[in-house]
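Fold it.
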Amino acid sequence: MPNRQIRIGLLWALLGVILFSFSLPLTKVAVGGFSPYLTATGRAVIAGALALILLSLARVPFPHRNQLKPLMFTMIGAVFGWPILLALALERTTAAHAAVIAAFMPLTTAIIAVVRFHERVSKQFWIASTLGTMALVIFALSRGGAEGADLIADLLIVGAVLSSSWCYVEGAAITRVMPGWQVISWVVVLALPVTVPATLMIYFFTADSFSPTSGEWSALILLGLSSMYLAFFAWYRGLAMAGTAVGGQVQQLQALLTLLWSALLLHEVVTPITVVMACIIIVCVMWALRSRPAAKSGSLIIAPEE
């Protein structure tokens, strides 16, 4: 059984996943009134503006030079890699097909954490994580993921998954010396010199093609506040306390939560196979979380600074 710190970390990670799970439904609403590219850069601008205010109010000093490299790696993945590569892929394929490859993200995150920072995990963990990933793939296939195959789109999604997993690991690593909320705050603030002009340029060239409603504006703002910013507060704290490899497995629940919100908010249909796969995924996640060996030096199970 995990110790108290790991249990608390898993709860923080779960809170982050709950907030992340609103991303797809909110994006579906937002792209009805904005360019897909603007939703990617615009939400980063919203997050960056809020972060700049919070960092100023807290009088947080600028990161040390040796902290800038992991922050930049995190920024590339979180702000540009995942949202932009995914947007490019979705121009060529369906969301259901993209979900087939994106299902490997928790497993990919675990592999990078083990290779990059030598986190310790058991054989049972790998079995549980792999079975959970396979269940997610079957889940995505059951929702039409076998259709829309496209080599370029698949490569773009693979790139998106790798960039997102890498930014999770790098962001969690820097929480050893910086609170998680400051990590994501500096990530989106450092991106502002790129995201602000990019957003203005995209808006200028696409303004005549879109007429966003108040609901679509609300969706974009919520994406910036929640998925792009506040969710990372909980997510990075959770990964730092529970370990990136194990804590990242909680993300397998994101697809199920997204489906729940889509059913409630967008009236999508929940099929019997979805319920069965949901149960299998939950069992695999619980198995993975209970199979972690005792932590040793070199892992990322370190509580962030308050």
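Confidence is low (pLDDT under 50) at residues 294-306.
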